[in-house]
Amino acid sequence: MAEQQSPQLGLERIYVKDISFEVPSAEVFTKEWQPQLDVSVTTTSNELDEDHKEIVLSVSVTAKNSGSTAFIAEVQQAGIFLLRNIPEADLPHLLQAYCPNVLFPYAREVISDIVNRGSFPQLLLAPVNFDQAFLQAQAELQNEESKQADA
Predict the structure, then answer these.
(1) 60: three-class secondary structure by DSSP
(2) Contact present, 81 and 11 (Cβ < 8 Å)
(3) What is the torsional sign of CA 25, 30, 31, 33?
(4) I need a labelling partner for 43 at 20 to 30 A (CA). Which of 36, 61, 78, 81 fits?
(5) Coil, strand, or helix at residue 81?
(6) What is the tens place of the pLDDT at every residue in 6-34?
(7) C-alpha span between 25 and 4 (Å, rounded)
(8) In order of start, what are the domains of the chain with their CATH numbers?
(9) 34 close to 94: Cβ distance less than 8 angstroms
């Protein structure tokens, strides 16, 4: 009788995959600083081998001041996660909520650092509730599927 192996989840590496900071015009430094921020957060996953996945959390911040772009800061914060003997039903939550929750504080720190190095005031991104976003996306998907089934 084959012994059931217990599930294993582990973080093996965290790294910055890509980073970008742009100040389109120095005029931004001559105006009163009252920024409007547009923050975008996305997640992708890539299978590295049977037991390892690379999760990439992409965070993009565009700051506009007086109608023009002050800066664009982008980071792709990545992690290599060991996912061994994880039930298939648990994978979506782990890949779309748990892993991004682990990576977000690192991405937040990188964004804060590059914005500060660009000579702008400190920028601390608000926490993101990836669990809530995942549950909302699942509910919307089920809603769409039920609408299609009724049609």
Answers:
(1) strand
(2) yes
(3) positive
(4) 36
(5) strand
(6) 999 999 999 999 999 999 999 999 999 99
(7) 60
(8) 8-150 (3.10.420.10)
(9) no
State the amino acid at position 64 in one-letter form.
K
Q: How far is CA 123 from CA 58, 89, 119, in A?
A: 17, 37, 11
**Residue 95, pLDDT score:** 95
Helices 130-150 and 99-117: crossing angle in degrees, nearest 10, is 120
Q: Contact at 8 Å (CB) between 90 and 2?
A: no
Cβ contacts of 108 within 8 Å, gap of 6 or more: 59, 124, 125
Position 24 scores a pLDDT of 96
Tokens of 124: 């601390």
pLDDT digits over 26-76, tens only? 999 999 999 999 999 999 999 999 999 999 999 999 999 988 999 999 999
Q: How far apart are CA 151 and CA 134, in angstroms?
A: 26
* Model confidence, pTM: 0.87
